[in-house]
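Bench notes, afternoon.
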Amino acid sequence: MKNTSRQLRRELLQAGAKASEADELSAIASRLRMLADDKYTFGKIWARAWKPVGLTASAFAVGVVLVISAQSVAPTSLLYPVQKISDAVAVRLHPSYRATVMMRRAQQVNQLVASHAPSEVILATLASYQTEAMNYKAMPHADYATFDFCKTNLEQAAAAAPGNVRQAIVSSLEELRNT
């Protein structure tokens, strides 16, 4: 590129341009060649600039699909931690969503008992229900129809549960009644 600039400068001087004009014109010509160079084309610059945006958008879309998919999974699913995290975020953003989470946990306890899931999983889900229920009960506008829905699910679960799980469910129901 330097040789081309020198050659252009020489030709400009031979054509009658002043030295300052030849320097200026050869500098402009060098910049124009850079623009025409393949690595500086608009398409490549555009592609380089949008690659991180595309990757970010793709990651966001995958995350949204995961969160949506996790909303209906059982506690035995690999996506259950995603459900719990998304529920925690939703409750933080909109505290009244806690009622939905509480009802979901009560249903999950019932479903786990009905599907003869391991006691540890049922008890962990019951503990999650209890935490949500205690926090919901402390809210100023707690809806007791929501508790009735949960109570019905837990009573059904208790009726079908094996001994130690039944005892835990009954204790949970009594504890919530007394608080």
